[in-house]
Amino acid sequence: MVTTTFAFDATLSRLTIDLGAVRQNYRRLRRKLGDVPCAGVVKADGYGLGADHVASVLYEEGCRTFFVATFDEAVGLRQILPEGDIACLNGLLPGTEAAYVEHRLTPVLNDLGQVARWRAHGVKTGAPLAAMLHVDTGMNRLGLDGRQMDQVAEDPALLDGIDWQYVLSHLCAADAPDSPMNAQQLARFTEMRRRLPGAIKASLANSSGIFLGSDYHHDLARPGIALYGGRPSAGGDNPMRCPIRIEGRILQVRTVERGWTVGYGGSWRAGRETRIATVAAGYADGYLRSLSSVGRVAVGGRLCNVVGRVSMDMITVDVTDIDPADTAPGGMVEVLGPTVTPDAMADLAGTIGYELLTSLGSRYVRHYVDSAE
Ligand SMILES: *Cc1c(COP(=O)(O)O)cnc(C)c1O
């Protein structure tokens, strides 16, 4: 993207990321975990917050194990973190073995074919290579399934020749603490670990899993969303701090007479004389179109309804009940942040906070601050 510097402030929207809140969220999870180490999941560019910034502060906080999804993400992170373990969740694609070694990355091996290839590569380099083993306990997405575990039980040598760091599995419903799937997966995980040769350290909990209790903590926790302010349980309180604040500038304020409609499709009609503020944030910025007529923004600390369709670059907001002093064109309003949280807006939009965060557009001017320094 072309960026030009003007002598005036042409910023229409900005995204402020408080790395101090990420630090505090990490510390909070550590307190919950006691002596169990806490990794940091920084896939998808740190859930949209900037993996380089997030990983650096986590490292400063003592985090030494990082998870990403793809090989590219891992190589990028290695530039930022000369030390520390970087594990790649999506598995070992054929032909990438030497590159993993070159960048000192740890693959999470998802089936016995990957295990065999990694062992063979270790033989080539002269020493067993480090890896993690993913076993499937119910997600049915990645990891050794029951049949492959039977093969391992019959022939434990299948796992020889690898320096196993952890065996891990992933919970399907940890954000629903009452779901019977949690205990089922824990029981399967325990059973699968029992069938593995030797004692390999274990990791099961994602963010929500940490809050299910110490039975789920094992030897390493793998939180992502909670670091970025997401709530651990779908129905419960949120003890985490929201590190992001997106503000959009008020471009114009107008009075719409009763009976007129606002926006594309005329989907919203004024039931009274309404003051409408047009705010610079739209779906091209990651402000989901499904927030049309259901989203909220915070103006001068008060919540106002988004009315009418979300456009590409703008939303329209009912500010009838707000002091006009707080709605002067040129002012900034919070469209997502501590007051209108990603979780709350995701509920209204029919999605999850994860999707809102990872959809944050590239158009925002990003500011990083660190309130905890
Ligand atoms: C994304 C992911 C995590 C982190 O999950 P959160 O719900 O964001 O805490 C942990 N483990 C695996 C395998 C993942 O894919």
Automatic annotation (TrEMBL):
The modification N6-(pyridoxal phosphate)lysine is found at residue 43. The keyword Isomerase applies. GO terms for biological process: D-alanine biosynthetic process. GO terms for cellular component: cytosol. Pathway: Amino-acid biosynthesis; D-alanine biosynthesis; D-alanine from L-alanine: step 1/1. It comes from the Bacteria. Belongs to the alanine racemase family. Catalyzes the interconversion of L-alanine and D-alanine. May also act on other amino acids. This is Alanine racemase.
